[in-house]
Amino acid sequence: MKKIDSKIPEGPLADKWNNYKAKAKLVNPANRNKLSVIVVGTGLAGSSCAASLAEQGYNIKSFCFQDSPRRAHSVAAQGGVNASKNYKNDGDSTFRMFYDTIKGGDFRSREANVYRLAECSASLIDHAVAQGVPFAREYGGYLNNRSFGGVQVSRTFYARGQTGQQLLLGAYQSLLRQVNTGKVTMHTRHEMVELVVIDGKAKGIIARNLETGTLERHEADAVVLATGGYGKVYYLSTLAMGCNGSAIWRAHKKGAYMAGVSWIQFHPTCLPQHGENQSKLTLMSESLRNDGRIWVSKKVGDDRLPNSIPEEERDYYLERRYPAFGNLAPRDISSRAAKERIDAGFGAGAMKNAVYLDFSKAIIAQGVDKIKAKYSNLFSMYEKINGIDAYKEPMLISPAAHFTMGGLWVDYELMTTIPGLFALGEANFSDHGANRLGANSLLQACVDGYFIAPYTIPNYLSGELKTDKITTDHPAFAEAEIAARRQLDRFLNTKGKFSADYFHKKTGKLLYEKCGLSRSKENLEEAIISLKLLKESFEKDLLITGDDTLNSELEKAGRVADYIELAELMCHDALQREESCGAHFREEYQTTEGEAVRNDSDFCYVSAWEWKGAQQPPELYKEPLTFESVELAVRSYK
């Protein structure tokens, strides 16, 4: 079995990032104009990286499939962004944030990466404030904080329920500044369809112009993928309809390893599914759990209105099972606890697939105006969708597929197993282990783009100055373009009877049932067989209307083809990990009380997978995880 080098710097944990920066290679300002970088994705990770590198003097080509960088899905992370600034003087520190994140990920992430995330968090808040991000403030003008799941301090900075949107506006204005200087060339409505690898290095992409259908060649000295997560593989998820995993999957098929792909987070605070024809689910911010209490009736199949159920007949099950953290238990634990109550027959709502999130006690204690100041846009959104005033009646919430802890394997420099190919934000696996704590997603995306990539990418580019310049006339570009064209033609010529959405729904339903909130050996083995059959059906039964120009159905087909293959890898990953950890809950490995049982002696490693071909099983590589600054412990929130 091969070894993979994570390139963790030497020295004590607190010194590793400074040691790296002190020794990182630099590029002379006069030489930076000779180098170019492609950045795919314009969310927080992509925009911040593109703006930061352009500010240094590199030539950047920025790509997004939306009509504007502002459409990136980072806007949907509503509740806040974490930073260990200890403004509340309640015991927070860089080490405590590091430990909370390591523990929250169930000890399945690298110490060095996680400590760097906590270390850089304080700088992010100062940077965002300088950009004009309107964080909430206390009366005296200090920035305010609230708490999120899995922690016992207040370290989450927020802008009402619009934190992701406001942070993205800050990154967007930085990006547009560089567009105006000419250092960034924007390519909106372009989708990456192939990665170009020359002499083992990432040297460009093939992009499809989504308005004309034209395939375009773009070369660069390095390529950055900041394309978000693949939670939409479940079809019903909190993600926007256009979100996809194609960029990282195409890179995977060119040699970039995927890691931790079955570690999928189900958000506990989502609006429940209300019908079979629904295309997505709506996320309600986890910040609501600061003041909302979660409960179900103690009576199976209770059809009474929630306000008519007496207090003594309510089961505040998170407070009962996890008294130390209560309603702020981590997302994986909270989601599984909700599923357990729903499956046991205590679910609420018309489809009995939800639990209650109740603000009545908080409103009595604080007043309705205080609750409105914190959450008014979320309450308004809930009423607009459901026609219910949550100031007077509890919200209905349910777990839903949300965030992917897995992604492309990257080393400490955020470089994949393909030299010159970097992955930032949710597109990589690096910081969250088997479960992500709330408000760490915005943090990782920003830290990767603003504070890490601007050091690690130049360190790589310094070695490219002396190499021969690659042009799009290179045969590798022609080969990649032909492969992309061949796939598009195959979709258009299949002439089956089912749409891409049909296969997407089939894939998602299969994953929800077999590789969702819980998994078992039997279900995973069945899922792998079923996905192989679904792929065969997709290849002969797909029907795409229209032509190869402006055609959203053709776009979907490519994304769904990737999802079916990715889903199979997810099941392989979940099958080989014979333990329960974080969001990966194997039914065979649990306590009598239904808590996860981790196996540190056999599975304390990152699972990294190599693509071996369409008809071949993937090959597993193991990156051992060593813990020098924390002790492996049973993850308890009781």
TrEMBL record:
It is a peripheral membrane protein. Residues 37-442 form the FAD-dependent oxidoreductase 2 FAD-binding domain. The keyword Nuclease does not apply. Keywords: Cell membrane, Electron transport, FAD, Flavoprotein, Membrane, Oxidoreductase, Transport. Its EC number is 1.3.5.1. NCBIfam families: PRK07573.1, sdhA_Bsu. This is succinate dehydrogenase. The lineage of its organism: Bacteria, Pseudomonadati, Bacteroidota, Flavobacteriia, Flavobacteriales.
